[in-house]
């Protein structure tokens, strides 16, 4: 096979094409890295614990207690969260960063 000599103009064109291909390849790699990082961030965010408390406060005879204070305390930090019951004695409390350990 015979070796071909490139003219300076052809050599420049080849150099520009190589840079363009490298640039596109870097762009694709950067895009994939951002996509993977975004997917991991969503995955980590999805692992946040959400705890919910629902119930009804009544007397021994089953009569609903309206406007009763309901207090939930996290065991590790002793941080308290409060809510009150409605007219039928029902309450609901949702914690976005729950620990699963309550007093």
Written account of the structure:
By secondary structure, this protein is of the alpha+beta class. The protein has two domains: 1-47; 51-95, no CATH class. 38% of the residues lie in helices and 21% in strands. It contains one helix and four strands. It has one helix spanning 8-46; strands at 51-56, 69-73, 80-84, 90-95. The strands form two sheets. The protein has a two-stranded antiparallel ribbon. Strands 2-3 form a two-stranded antiparallel sheet. The longest helix is centred in the N-terminal third of the chain and has 39 residues, at 8-46. The termini are far apart. The relative contact order is 0.15. The model has no long low-confidence stretch (mean pLDDT 77).
Provide keyphrases for this structure.
38% helix, 4 strands, 2 domains, 1 helix, 103 residues, two-stranded antiparallel sheet, alpha+beta
Number of domains: 2
Helix content: 25-40%
- Biggest sheet strand order reads 1-4
Identify low-pLDDT runs: none
**What share of the residues does DSSP label as strand, in percent?**
15-25%
Q: Round the Cα radius of gyration to an integer and report it.
A: 32 Å
Biggest sheet features: 2 strands, antiparallel
The termini sit apart by 84 Å
Strand pairing plus helix content: what structural class?
alpha+beta
Q: What's the average pLDDT?
A: 77
| Principal-axis shape | rod-shaped
Number of strands: 4
The ordered H/E elements are: HEEEE
- Count up the helices: 1
């Amino acid at each position: 096979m015979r070796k071909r000599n490139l003219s300076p103009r052809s050599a420049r064109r080849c150099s520009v094409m190589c840079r363009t291909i490298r640039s596109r390849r870097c762009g694709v790699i950067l895009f994939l890295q951002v996509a993977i990082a975004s997917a991991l961030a969503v995955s980590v965010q999805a692992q946040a614990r959400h705890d919910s408390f629902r119930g009804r406060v009544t007397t021994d005879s089953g009569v609903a207690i309206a406007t009763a204070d309901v207090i939930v305390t996290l065991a590790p930090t002793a941080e308290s969260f409060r809510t009150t019951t409605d007219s039928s004695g029902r309450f609901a409390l949702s914690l976005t960063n729950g620990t699963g350990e309550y007093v």
